Amino acid sequence: MASHRRPKQPSRTRVTVLTATATAAVALSSQAAHADPKPTKSEVKAKVDKLYHEAEEATEKYNGAKERQDKLKKQVDTLQDRVARSQDELNTLRGELGLLATAQYRSGGLDPSVQLLLSSDPDSFLDQASALDQVTVKQAESLQRIQAKQRALGQQRREAQAKIADLAEVRETLGRNKQKFQGKLAEAQKLLNTLTVAERARIAEDEQRAGRAAGDRVELGNEVPASALGAEALRQAATRVGKPYVRTATGPNSFDCSGLTQWAYAQAGVQITRTTYTQITQGTRIARSQLKPGDLVFFSNTSHVGLYAGNNTVLHAPYPGAYVRYESMSTIGSYQTAVRI
Distance between CA 165 and CA 292 in Å, rounded? Predict the structure, then answer.
């Protein structure tokens, strides 16, 4: 005989769980449908280039702080050496004063008038008194020298302490800028890692091809250099084409942008400073229309520099992952100014 029991109704708790599960599934489906698509190789490359540019700005600031740190360290060492020598001289003067004081004590323990009365040989006593006067004069001179040396030593110590404080501050700046460019480079690498090995290899090939193509297009003979110095610096830089960009590097086998320009001019016989921010102050500012081969050309708020090579082209170390190459000024970034060393 068939049972006529009513089917058991699902509990309210079970209905709630099933409803929540279904809602979550719909939400996940909706999110998946509307999720941002994976960036293309071109989009990743554009973002990476921007990060590399920001890393280069931080690198140039790091280079500037490093240059200042090295200079301050030399100044501190010189001052501390001077303080040590002054302290030795002061100790010597104090020793001489002690000897004079001993001589005065031995010769002048009694009042001079009493010594004269007790002396069996007044002439000999007067000679001794004259010698004692000379000792007293020397003692006064020694005291004056000691006081002057103490003042000088105090000033030297204050200067050394001030330089040490400056050095500590610069080292903090150095650390901050190092963290900044390392962070930008890590972020760029993370983006690159979203690409396949084949896509990353194609980007590297494109970089090398771009450098070769720009080099093939440039014709250096069309424009006369402003000076033999500029011509030689450009010639030296041209021997580095194909060398990799490496942050903070100054050659001869890898460079950052200002490292290349500094190295090129050093080979030509002229020392220029380390960073874009200081190199821009070292020559004569010229208009873009006056550019000649060998001039320094600055881009992107002076955070990037290259050597003008003629035909609106510069020779430069572009950014991490790239190589020293010729490139059209129109593709590098915003033109800032130019300087002739």
Answer: 44
For residue 298, the SS3 value is: strand
67: exposed, middle or buried (Cβ count in 10 Å: 0-12, 13-18, 19+): middle
Q: Which two tokens stand for residue 285?
A: 């500012």
Q: Which two tokens stand for residue 307?
A: 């050597």
**What's the rounded Cα separation, in Å, for the pair 122 and 115?**
9
- DSSP H helices, the chain, are 12-34, 41-107, 112-118, 122-192, 197-217, 228-238, 257-267, 276-279
CA dist 278 and 302 (Å) reads 10
What are the DSSP calls for 170-213, one per residue?
A: HHHHHHHHHHHHHHHHHHHHHHHTTS-HHHHHHHHHHHHHHHHH
The dihedral built from the CA positions of residue 223, 227, 229 and 230, taken in this order, carries a sign that is negative
**DSSP letter string over 219-240?**
-GGGS--S-HHHHHHHHHHHTT
Neighbouring C-beta atoms of residue 122, cutoff 10 Å: 10
- To the question of pTM greater than 0.85 for the whole model, the response is no
Tokens of 216: 């093939």
The helix (H) or strand (E) run that includes residue 326 is: strand 325-328
Q: What is the predicted pLDDT for the residue at 300? A: 84
Query: What is the C-alpha R_g of the chain?
Result: 39
For residue 168 the two structure tokens come to 């500590």
Residue with tokens 């007067």: 126
Lowest mean pLDDT of 29-43, 56-70, 269-283, name the range: 29-43
Structure confidence by residue, pLDDT tens digits, 72-127: 888 888 888 888 888 887 788 777 766 656 665 555 554 454 444 444 555 555 55
| Per-residue model confidence (pLDDT) at position 115 | 47
Query: What length does the chain have?
Result: 341
Say if residue 80 is exposed, middle or buried (CB neighbours under 10 Å; 0-12, 13-18, 19+).
middle
